[in-house]
Structures are given as structure tokens and as C-alpha cells.
Amino acid sequence: MKKINTKKRNQKTKSNPKPLEKVPLQKKETQIKSTSSKNNLNYSILCSISLIIISFTLSFLFFNQLPPLVATHWNFEGTADGFTPKEIGIFIIPLLTTSILLILYYIPNIDPLKTNIESFKKEYHAMILIFTIFMAYLHIVTLLLNLGFKLDIRQLIAIGFALIFYSIGILMKKTKRNFFIGVKTPWTLSSDTVWEKTHNQASKLFKASAILALIGLITPNLSLFFIIVPIIISSIFIIIYSYIEYKKEINQKKKKEL
Q: How much is the pLDDT for 44?
């Protein structure tokens, strides 16, 4: 009888396996977010590396067709006024892009508030990719001008800077408080509320600057003016705005304490 009972017990334990542990919904969401952020990072890195390789390849392909001295700087009138030996000049932009990308991808790992960066990593990686596209675009424009193509660089850079400014505007809207990415004044770093309000304004101003930069397509003579001046004014305004919002927050806290 004892043997029969033990057999029955063994059958019961086999037929009734332990129920699977339920994974909390929050854990599932964080897992999904982490995998999606990793996928975005991999895609961004892959595309950025591909663009850098293309830039270097183009430099080598057209090396023999380029003059000994290549133009690397243009004045406000769109005339070349700075020249560099082609052995160095045609590799400046790809090398600079590579260096900046290494810094941009490494920054989130050393930020004490890197958990905040995780919340907008998708937009951050998108901005890095757009920056790489912008640099590759500048490199191609530089090569074409040095190969003798008659192009107005003032009009061409207006498109590139408009793209960069607008992408930064999108990023600004999503950023959370950190020490490397965004508008980092003593007042934004001291308050999440001031940070959010300041970056909402910065987002609008950068998008507006992007639209103004496109005026250079119509009026090449004013291209650099509409690229540089709106950004300078916007930057000054944002710094002052962050201070004003911080003072407002401090005054409100004092009123509550009274």
C-alpha cells in the first residue's frame, strides 16, 4: 500500500508542475525599452560608420583628380580663401566626424545622471545620425567644389544647418536633466522644472532657427547671417530665460514657507 501511495504522489507532482512566475508589467516595459534602445543604438552606429566609410572612400577615389591644394574655407561671399594640402584637407571632415562620434557615443556612460539620458536615447541617437549625415553632406560638397563644380556653398550649407538645427529642436523637447546634453546653466541643473521649461523654449527657438536658416537658399548673400545670428540670439535668450524661471521657482517656494 505504501508503494502505491508514493507512486500516486509522484504522479501528482509530475502532472501538476509549478506555475510560472508572472513578470511584473513594469519589468516587461523596461525590458522592451532597453531592447528597443539597443536596437536604435546599433542602427545608429551602423549607419554612422557606413557614412564615415563612404566619406573616406570618396576621398581616396577622387584623390588623383583633386588639385595639390584644396579649398577648406570660404568667406561670406562664397569665395574660397583658405587652402590645405590635399593629403590632409580631404580627410579633415571624416576624421573630425569620427572623433566627435566617439565622444557623443561615450558621453552617456560617464554622466552621473545617465538614467535620465536613457529616457531620450532614441532621440539622442537619431540626432547623432543626422549629425553624421550633415558631416558627410559637407564632405561631398567640399569635394565637388574642389573638383571644379560651380556651386554656391552659401546655399548648400543653409540646407545642412537647417537640418541640424531642427533635429536639435526635436531633441531639446525630449531631454531630461543631465550634465552633458542640452542647455546646462546653473539654474537648469538645479531644478527639473526649470530644465523642462527652458528646453521647451529651446526646442521652439531651434526649430525657428532652422526655418530662418533656409532663407539662405533665396538670398545667398545673407545665408551666414540667417545661420549664425538667430542661434546667437536664441542662446542668449535661453540662458536669461532659465535664470528668470529659476528665480520664479525660488520666490514661489519662499511664499509657501511664509
A: 84
